[in-house]
Amino acid sequence: MKIYCNHLVIADKVNIADTFMKRFFGLMGKKKLDFGEGLLLLNCPSIHCFFMKISIDVIYLSEEMTVEGVETLKPWSIGKHYKKTAHVLELREGSVNSKVNLGDRIVLSRDSK
Prior knowledge:
Low-confidence stretches: none
Number of helices: 1
Largest sheet: 5 strands, mixed
Shape: globular
Number of domains: 1
CATH topology: Jelly Rolls
Strand content: 35-45%
Order of helices and strands: EEEHEEEEE
Number of strands: 8
Helix content: under 10%
């Protein structure tokens, strides 16, 4: 799955976590994420990084996939709470930078655009 923001690919190897178990285990156990790699947690309004070994960039998304918040989380930390968050996108640290801003819309694509 590819993830676009402002017509730019921000990640091209994103897995979907759409069940309780996939969301529960998430990125635990990962020793690294490659550039473009990430995890989209559907129906997940908040996250933590307990038991994780890596820092990640986090994009909090509304039901309509609008960016509600962005932050970098270190292992053993808890993510911020954004009222309208419905989904969370986790990416390699340094992936977001200035590419994603509040109010931007994230687009998912399975094609090879």
